[in-house]
Amino acid sequence: MDISNPSDVTEITPSARIDTSRHGWRAKCLQRLIRMDLPVPRSHAISGDGVQAIAAGQAVPIDAFKGLFDSRDGLVGVRPSAVTPEWGGPGTVLNVGINDRIHARLAARIGPENADAIYLNFVQSYAIHIARLDPDMFAQEGKGALADALRCYCDEMDEEFPQDPYLQLAGVLRSMARAWEGPTARLLRQAKGAPADAPLGLVVQEMALAMGPGLSGSGSIQFIDSVTGTPRVTGRFRGQHHGGAVGRDAETLYLTRDQRGPSLEEVAPGIFADLVRFGVAARERLREEMQIEFVVTEGRISIIDAVRVQRSSRASVRIAVALARDGVIPEDEAVMRVEPRALTDLLHHQVDPRAPRDLITRGINASPGAATGRIVFNAATAQASASRGEPCVLVRRETVPEDIRGMHASVAVLTERGGTTSHAAVIARGLGLPCIVGASGLVIDSRRRTMQAGGRTFREGEEITIDGTSGEVLAGAATLLEPALDDAFTQLLEWADAAGGIGVRANADTPEDARTARNFSAQGIGLCRTEHMFFDADRLPAMREMIFADTPEDRRLSLERILPMQRKDFTALFEIMAGLPVTIRLFDPPLHEFLPHDREGLRELAESLDLPLSDVTRRVDALSEFNPMLGMRGVRLGITVPEIYDMQARAIFEATVEASRKGDPVVPEIMIPLVSAMREVELVKNRVDAVAAAVRNERHSSFTYRLGVMVETPRAALRAGDIAAHSAFLSFGTNDLTQMTYGLSRDDAGRFMGTYVGQGVYAEDPFHVLDRDGVGELLLTGAQRARQQSPGITISVCGEHGGNPESIGFCHEAGFDYVSCSPFRVPVARLAAAQSAI
Ligand code: PEP
Ligand code: MG
């Protein structure tokens, strides 16, 4: 047989040149196990180039495998080896090389039924995956099935089942190489972040047979709990006793002593102790928690594979922190090992154990956390529901790769079938979605769009709660508890902070937000949206009175009623933040948002203002705008109705005096929204300065303050040089800036965003991930012009992007001082900030 390039095949020895980038993670991992002197069967690695050449039709370099089938049993297995395990790969093919001669030899050693089972298993997989014959023709099991399968193969192919092991191997390698090039495999790995042309390595390994006289069998062992991340030996061992037939005398043993049945620890304490020893060594050498796959052949252990332990987000934090605390990896590496988004999962809600639970059914608790949503039965409905902003729970018999987008759009997933490693479970854990699988009490009728459980019927659109931590499905919206944070979480974030990186503040409007921000160690408040303070029932009437005031004097009087309330708000924020910076944004929204829109509301308002309904209606109409988000809001309102900003400035300064008297000195930061021209800043600054001077005078105080500008319009970014001349800081409001740069309504874009992202018009929703190419260029231009004018100016981002890890990376690269995000995203942002810096 021809050799395409023998250098593409390398026997894995301690000194062989095996690279993860060429041969994949599995080949590299096996080499490390071999270097540790673990009993790994002889293995060969085929490089990504080699696999690609095979897929393209070049001859398989069979000569490089010479002697491979000379071992005692003469069989090999082939496993995929992508660059990282997450990228997957085609299914493993075992028992390659079996033919009539080896079958006869095996029958003598391990019994005819075992030998038949091995041969049948390979004929089936060869016929289906390599010869591409109809699987139904090879579905038979049991007595006579092998002879039938061999006959059937011969009838369909017009030739005997191949007896040459090298020919079999060539067929297997080619089919695995081509499977990797197929569209399903490509889509799946792209969803995991792999490039479309990611290479696949293959590993060809001598088989260690899990059968024979004496204790034989196969299993896997891990030393950590996949859900909690705490130390615990788990796994399984399927033993074949004394040459018993497959499926007849096979017995699954627990690994450690267990009341429910016999365990490997009791049956074979020596083997168990060796496995534990190998596990400890592998953790140190591979610097990772590993799941070890092993085979016992007549009392001898072979280590055939080791894979990174599957883990929940919570476990990923515990594992990384434990590895660093044990000195296996440096602290910085622990920080790098945790996906920032995983922290969100630790912050997950749980169903309140004290609250009533309307239990529908139970399943396997496949991914922790709890969420409530409306039932949907397919991915398309899930996406439609998400685009309407309605949380949904995807309910499926089982999920398939095509459901990934639907899972992304759901708050939780429930499946009738499957186990902890089923597709739904693995993907949900990866996404941090609460998930229950194997809820076998469910009867799903996807045509009628109903599900039945416990004698009750639920229709699409009805609300249920998924408790992924306990595995319980509950009717309706259960009471959820705020998430708990553990010691590993705190430790990881301490290490993250020590790594430096861009600062992280919180967007906090209320004392409660501010407390959460402090709990998560935010370095200050980067945005307090003051308008939220005007909607409270005790302020709305004064606000409406102010809007209806006929003269500046009347307006001032109405605002005077709001002043003490605002002062109280700001004093509370300053006190909670204890000297950390607090940035308060002056009033931003259009005034009509504070007015009623229906007739009943208008009538009530007329009554409370003691005005004729017609007057009220006329005034409300006069305030309405065609494009309110581009209308009289932000600084435009501040300049047109300056009394509002005057009142707010006074409340801020009086609160500053009050809070500074009680605690740490406060230097408030006042931020002007929606600026597009330098003159706007000058006008506001003059009035705020005047208010500051008045308060200093009245209170005999000498506080200072910083005035800054929110850069939310493209013009403000372009004119940042002028604007910086009057500003101590600039904060990019990337929500409005994205809206205005794209000309895309942030409130309406959801309707077609799915289609746009689906068709690749936008790589991502630009309101979630900062658009580096367009909006990003405005940020860079603005920052550069501002710094040219005022080198010491503080620059930040306070739009939603401030909590998005990719966008934080951009802000770090751009040299910004901090990002500000909602309080619950602060931990994610701190970790992402550290990762950009390391
Ligand atoms: C922004 O526009 O980015 C911003 C932070 O302000 P808001 O979301 O309140 O408009
Ligand atoms: Mg804005």
Automatic annotation (TrEMBL):
Signal peptide span: none
Domain PEP-utilising enzyme C-terminal: 490-836
Entry superkingdom: Bacteria
EC number annotated for this UniProt entry: 2.7.9.1
Spans through the membrane: none
Keywords for this protein: Kinase, Magnesium, Metal-binding, Pyruvate, Transferase
Co-factor(s): Mg(2+)
Role description: Catalyzes the reversible phosphorylation of pyruvate and phosphate.
Family affiliation: Belongs to the PEP-utilizing enzyme family.
Name of the protein this chain belongs to: Pyruvate, phosphate dikinase
Lineage start: Bacteria, Pseudomonadati, Pseudomonadota, Alphaproteobacteria, Rhodobacterales
